[in-house]
Amino acid sequence: MLSKARFLGVFLLVVGLTALLVAPAAIGADDKPTFYWISHGSSGDPIWIFALRGAKQAAKDLNVNLKSSFHQNDISTHQEAFKSAIAAGADGIASSSPDQGVLQDEVAMAKERGIPVVFFNADDPTTGRDAYVGADNVEVGKSWANYLVNNDLVEEGDFVWMPVEVPGATYQREETRGISSVFDPLGIEYDVFDAKYDPVQSLQNMKNYLSSHKKKVDAIIGLGDMVMGNIKETFEAAGVEPGDIPVVGWGNSAETAKEVMDGYVQAATWQYPQSQGYMPIALLNMAHQGKPIGYDIVTVALYEKENAESYYELAQQ
Amino acid sequence: MKNKVIEKLAAHRELGPLLLLIILGLVFYSLSPAFLSVLNITNMIEFIPEIGIIALGMTLLLTGGEFDLSVGALFGFTPVLMFILKNEGFMGIEMAFFVVIAIAALIGFTNGILVTKIGISSFLVTIGMQLVVRGTGLYISEGFPQSSWQAKTPLKSALAYSIDFPGSYFKIIVSLFWFIGMAALAYYVLNKTRFGNWIKATGGNEKAARARGINTDSVKIILFMTTAVLAGFAGIIDAFRIGSAYPVSGTGYELEVIAMTVIGGTSLFGGRGTVIGTILGVLLLRTIRNGIVVVGVPGLAYNIFVGIAILSMMGVHAYLEKQSGGGS
Known about the structure:
Structural class of chain A: alpha/beta
Radius of gyration of chain A: 22 Å
Order of helices and strands of chain B: HHHHHHHEEHHHHHHH
Order of helices and strands of chain A: HEHEHEHEEHEHEHEHHEHEHEEH
Oligomer: heterodimer
Shape of chain A: elongated
Distance between the termini of chain A: 54 Å
Strand content of chain A: 15-25%
Largest interface: A-B, 60 and 65 residues
Strand order of the largest sheet of chain B: 1-2
Number of domains of chain B: 1
Strand order of the largest sheet of chain A: 2-1-3-4-5-11
Largest sheet of chain A: 6 strands, parallel
Number of helices of chain B: 14
Helix content of chain B: over 70%
CATH topology of the largest domain in chain A: Rossmann fold
Helix content of chain A: 40-55%
Number of strands of chain A: 12
């Protein structure tokens, strides 16, 4: 039978593990400025891992404290984290925008306290944030649709298949909004496909779909990085040759860059995720030093087969 | 001879999470005094009612021996449908509210029927329902959030009005009073009414409960309906508070709510439930979620804390179970 001492040990274990986990943060509580980096994305998503790596690198290079959190598209907890950062006396807050308008009060509260705010990855200029680093997802969506149209890869009556990992997520909605602004007037049909977030499931679902609908699909726009990384295997499973169905979409991974090099994907967008982590911290540090930061930094480039290799190397770093 | 402290803890399961809550609160406060600042406390109590209301329903359902994995999907779906009904001009917001609450009750009823009359496990039924509800929300909204409905209405004021205190960051959302009222009602039902006894009897030993003349199927169906309605209601409060309804809202809440409930002392296997424990479980997990942001635990270590809290409380409960000679 367990003893009282062992019972109390459970609590001591909790305290011990708590201390172990928070000790680095506590030790970091010095006179260096402390910046919060709050992402609405998933901690398992490669693009956010790249971005966090960039933020950490900035903290190291600039000798500042960094406190980060991920909120898996949950707006309530994102808002809570933002206000917690304010309550904790942050010297600056870098945040992505989970959606338009939802961080209005939080940004206003931060500004009232003199805390600079930089948005990254997903913007909401209506909040009055100081600066933005990243892509405009609506414009990115437009660029993909325009690429297909301008290169005569789709025309009126064609159908474009648009797989995505998380239907309903901010990036999907904004990209689709941009795509629809090009396709709708031209009578080009499109459909968002729920491929699922799990890598195995997403690949299997895409294989199943394309195998049974390849005659219907005239082009593909991959709305996320995971689905774009599945294109080669999906084509092979469905018996589609590279180039038979034109593909555009995100290209922030080595897999997609290789697919572009091998002709499976015609064009892909690189959004410099590490810069989306690094630059907001650099801007916040400048603001902390009293330097103005009222400008945005766009981190987007569309690449094709000719220049894909450099992105492939970048993605492997 | 058993130690008196252990006996007391075994008799009052809420003391375990309470003790853990106090310890963690002190740890967070010692590392960052901002943890107990007015702004941060206000921040924490904004979201607690919403997740807490779902947890109350789950407490009753778990006590009755079942659980519901569709609550997170209902949390997202109900307000989306309500705003669609309003924005597309089908009806006014108040009528839409009652319609979607009725639909949530119908979904709960369907869960209950499938579990009790068809005999499918609640795990399979509610995971299927989760996909149906989540998918329906995404389909009817095309994945887009329903535009915030900013006009002030009696309904919005009744559910999510913010009581501000001039000159201070402190504010209270009226949803806190809904949560307190519902918690009091759930406590009363579970501990002071015949129906509460039926719930515990149904969850503890269904055959014996039936033999005593309790209609266990009806009890479970009512509990499924209650849980679904509370999840939908909480989602509507959330949508009014943050200003928009998102079809993906509530993703993963089902497991978090079950964790809150079980940490509080409600048995995962039915027959024993504690509303006070659930409130403490809600406070505990929300404190952890908030505290690790304030203190600055690395984002990728976020879930480690939650896991530690769940495992440690499960260890404590299992230990107390052995000490008191009960089964799980």
